[in-house]
Specification:
Radius of gyration: 27 Å
Order of helices and strands: EEHHHHHEHHEHEEHHHHHHHHHHHHHH
Shape: elongated
Strand order of the largest sheet: 3-4-6-5
Low-confidence stretches: 1-21, 258-270
Bound molecules: iron/sulfur cluster
Structural class: mainly alpha
Length: 477
């Protein structure tokens, strides 16, 4: 992908500008120095961007949970393969498939540049996540691909001559723990901060002597610094884009953070439980609910009422776990026990049926994901909707977690830290892992916990039920 795109055919747009209609992608590793030039549809624009964001979102989750590089790769690699795979060149590979994958990779990278160039914080998050993605791909590529990449881009590295190497032999071997036969590049030390910080290079007169075996650090440093500069340039050019009312809402949506996969409740209102849920069963399932839904359920039982946004958030969640519309009507009618049948029919029945697509626009509404709940209407006094990690005070959050059985100071400390860093779903994931650790902690033989972030309340529920079921099946032999 890093060969300059070949111009095949030029067309004129309505504005009289030349547009390149085709680009070649001879290699899969790229430093993304050439912007895409073809037209794509608005759907491709959004879908490709969201797919890349799934990958970067999972990388961010892993980074915020301090995963070691190997553990991070184990979590992220399947997601890369699913949403952003890049197959290697091979005689059997179909060029249309390779081109399609590389084109998507190229365009999605540049689309996210637009979304993530708007502030220092977004830029640094993007550079971090993209650099990790690049590192994983680089590490999984063939040496010939590394060589192609290095010889294509002019990195300005100086090869250390045999004479110089010989004169510095002792220092080089001691400070880099490399063998006598190693070759070295000389680069200004500020270009390899990681290697300098870890004392993995020999420094002299402002140059770092980097062994070829550490070349990935050099390439990565190039990738990150070029991307940082490019993002600043993009930010300066962005005001011109603000007039585009088709792209700006998409970009705003994308830059709101990580992406939460949509949760699809099945048409038959069947959940992971394998059966429709009855209204009377809801109380017995609360232990599988995430904190946001436990709070709503508790408030409903206490006040015999929930305000509009609370009813929406909780009602759609219950729909997602398998409550049919008939059972939902029974559930809400019984829960609002202090009002008459008439008042219920007049004021609430329509709303319940509406959520199931049986009234009004007849849209089949989906349960809200974490991004919608965290970034949606904040709760006012008397409201119970929202995400407790985002909307509760620290004291109230600790008290709410206590009601879930989370008293461990070290977990509470980590949760507070995540909340301070605005990683609300990471805090929620830690609580999930802690409260389900009795079923065998992550990484332990026989563990049924998956090492992935919670991004949807219904995902929390599904996973909790699956974990409990798997543990029961193991216990039953
Ligand atoms: Fe609910 Fe998501 Fe917040 Fe967890 S992170 S409490 S699932 S909104």
């Amino acid at each position: 992908m890093f060969r300059a795109p070949k111009k095949r055919a030029l067309e004129r747009t309505n504005f009289g500008k030349e547009v390149v209609r085709d680009q070649d992608y001879p290699e899969r590793l790229s430093l993304y120095t050439v912007p895409p030039l073809q037209e794509i549809t608005l759907d491709e624009f959004e879908i490709w961007a969201l797919d890349r964001l799934r990958v970067l979102g999972e990388i961010e989750n892993c980074l915020s949970r301090n995963k070691a590089p190997k553990a991070l790769e184990a979590v992220v690699k399947p997601i890369i393969d699913k949403y952003l795979s890049l197959s290697p060149n091979s005689p059997s590979a179909k060029s249309s498939i390779l081109d399609g994958e590389r084109r998507k990779d190229h365009y999605s990278h540049f689309i996210l540049r637009l979304a993530f160039c708007r502030s220092d914080e977004l830029r640094s998050r993007f550079v971090k996540a993209e650099s990790v993605l690049f590192r994983i791909r680089y590490a999984n590529a063939e040496p010939a691909e590394w060589q192609n990449l290095i010889s294509h881009y002019s990195f300005g590295w100086t090869q250390v001559s045999e004479e110089e190497k010989f004169s510095l032999r002792d220092e080089l071997v001691v400070s880099t723990t490399s063998s006598d036969h190693e070759s070295y590049f000389k680069v200004p030390f500020e270009r390899v901060p990681e290697l300098v910080a870890d004392r993995r290079v020999f420094l002299k007169h402002g140059d770092a002597y980097v062994p070829v075996s550490q070349q990935i650090s050099l390439v990565l440093a190039e990738f990150s610094s070029r991307l940082s500069k490019a993002l600043e340039l993009t930010a300066r050019a962005l005001p011109r884009l603000d007039e585009d009312d088709r792209l700006v809402p998409i970009l705003n949506h994308i830059s709101r953070g990580f992406v939460a996969p949509e949760y699809f409740s099945s048409d038959e209102a069947m959940s992971v439980l394998g059966e429709t849920v009855k209204a009377v069963q809801v109380d017995s399932l609360v232990s599988h609910f995430p904190l946001c839904m436990q709070q709503l359920h508790k408030g409903l039982r206490r006040d015999h009422h929930l305000r509009y946004y609370g009813r929406q958030q909780y009602g759609l969640f219950l729909k997602g776990i398998g409550l049919s519309v008939e059972e939902a009507l029974i559930f809400w009618r019984q829960s609002f026990s202090e009002i008459t049948d008439e008042k219920f029919s007049k004021e609430y029945r329509y709303n319940v049926r509406h959520n199931y697509g049986l009234e009004g626009s007849r849209k089949n509404y989906r349960p809200h994901n974490c991004v919608q709940i965290i970034g949606g209407n904040p709760p006012g006094p008397g409201d119970l909707h929202g995400c407790p990690y985002r909307h509760f005070s620290e004291d109230n959050l600790v008290a709410a977690l206590g009601s879930m059985g989370v008293h461990d100071n070290s977990i509470l400390r980590q949760v507070k830290e995540d909340v301070k860093n605005k990683h609300y779903h990471v805090a929620c994931t830690k609580v999930f892992e802690y409260t389900h650790a009795k079923y065998a902690p992550i990484g332990e033989k026989g563990s049924v916990l998956k090492d992935e972030a919670i991004t949807h309340p219904n995902l929390y529920f599904d996973r909790s039920v699956q974990v409990a079921k798997a543990a029961k099946a193991r216990a039953d032999g």
